[in-house]
Fold Polyprenyl synthetase family protein.
Amino acid sequence: MSATEPSNSVQADPFAELHSAVASAVARVEAAIRADLEHALDQCDPLLSEVVHYALFNGGKRIRPLLTILCSRGCGRDDDNLYLLAGAFEYLHVATLIHDDIIDRADQRRGKATVIAHYGITAAILAGDWLHARSMYLVGKMAGSDSLDVFCHATQSMVNGEFEQLRQIANVHASEQQYFKIIRQKTGNLIASTCAIGALYAGADPQQQHALSTYGSHIGEAFQIVDDLLDFQGNTAQTGKQVGNDFAEGKITLPLLYALAHATPEDKQIMEDLIQGDRTQRSAYQDLVANIERYDGFSRAAHTARQLVSQAIETIKTMTVHENGGQALHLLQMLAAYLLTRKK
Amino acid sequence: MSATEPSNSVQADPFAELHSAVASAVARVEAAIRADLEHALDQCDPLLSEVVHYALFNGGKRIRPLLTILCSRGCGRDDDNLYLLAGAFEYLHVATLIHDDIIDRADQRRGKATVIAHYGITAAILAGDWLHARSMYLVGKMAGSDSLDVFCHATQSMVNGEFEQLRQIANVHASEQQYFKIIRQKTGNLIASTCAIGALYAGADPQQQHALSTYGSHIGEAFQIVDDLLDFQGNTAQTGKQVGNDFAEGKITLPLLYALAHATPEDKQIMEDLIQGDRTQRSAYQDLVANIERYDGFSRAAHTARQLVSQAIETIKTMTVHENGGQALHLLQMLAAYLLTRKK
């Protein structure tokens, strides 16, 4: 379909408006990041520069920077520095991915060798630390002390979420409440901070800050649930990674929790045995998936993600809009809905 | 010797004044750190809390916090928050030690199992990240945006120094200039930042900031040279680690560089062959040490460390002293001299 044809076909992308509206923002983030790296890595070791570029320019969707930009715009501020501030969230995100891939011993990310697989553990630890420091520097410099507080607390919370997740490995008695606490800490708080700091950057009032932070928290949790669903149902060609990693690692995610909650005692026991047995067996994974299907674990989890997105959208709808912020808030709503459809 | 005896014995500790003057400052840092952790780790996973405490309360000398405190006092400010700000430098220091021990696959530190050896790689990476984030938060919050800039740049520089060091592994053509560039980035800049931020916290004028930063840079480099000497000459019972690690890892440090620079072509070739050969052999290490001795590599490196300390002390002597800052600046001079004598 060419760009000039009418877009009333049923195959038309319902998010075409979102894509075209955000493309230029993402391009500005990329340019800001490249300029910042050129400056910050000037006179640095060539390998450090290579690793940082390798990790950052890897087909990432730049969702976090986009959230900062749209939240700032929604509260009335849009200037050049905003795109570099937004880039800082991508730095932190990539820093955590690099360190996560060490922890998970992951070889592939987005269909490409991970930093640890390509450059080894020393480069991976150090490049993650460099990006972490650079992200803090940019947030403190461009968005001020209150924003740095929010950012550092979200980072500390993320680490705590990872520890709590470790504690629940292969724990068949893990509760939904514990799952939601973990994803809020691992993902929700950091996404909320990208939104809150966008609002703070724009000088938003407390009600706007709170609304955008709440929006971020809800979509962050939805995002994590979709991630957990893709770990079962994703297409490897699209996600760039195998399915079943979470099960192999003993992570008890929402589809499984819902299935455990609704299964007959016999099937619950079967699932528990699978979780506590040899999780590297392909047949164990397949048996588990069949049981999750049987008790609608996937559709229940998808429903929960949709509910969270609906709450996020409602939060935006009821907040006070800056006179120039209408389109940005509209795009935030579309973005929330779009996150549900992602396949990678 | 009891405390009441006169201290004119030749065995008397020439640093007794330093020790007694700093003991209460160090105790206040410990108390500030404990209170901060209690607050920051409230409601956190017990394992995260355990790992952070294990890493932080490990017999560390608290040199970095002490520098911040003395530099701030020297510029006229001494209040409760100073001790927590000072603690932030210990957080960052410990974060880097935890990550370094992953990179070096180290089992022991100060005679105790390292975090990675005791808790595994996941806990080690994450606890390092937590302490890193917390240190940035505290510096930004308590010393402001300019201090955070200095701090983040020093952290980025440290990472770059590690990359440059990697590049020089087993490189027999490494120059003294490259060595000094690496230790300035790895150690000097961060120690300089602890001093500069102490000065900034006290509202020091640019001349004072510059003097204290220069002091920190010099003693940081001297500190690293002493570290490199201890890696050859340290007493395992005191340092808590084996000698010869640097050689085994292919790190070309100053005693070796000086020996290479002064050796006959034949002995230089022998040392180069040892560096590029099987460095795990005990006999290779012993042959190398004998050659370094032969060409005064150790005494030359120790001389350089003394020169750096003298420069640091001169810098302090010529700076403008705050009316209440005399004793602190005197202690900074003693501390510089003390660093040369350390055995661990």
Q: What stands out?
A: The longest strand of chain A covers residues 108-109. Chain A has one domain: 16-341. Chain A touches chain B through 40 residues (CB under 8 Å).
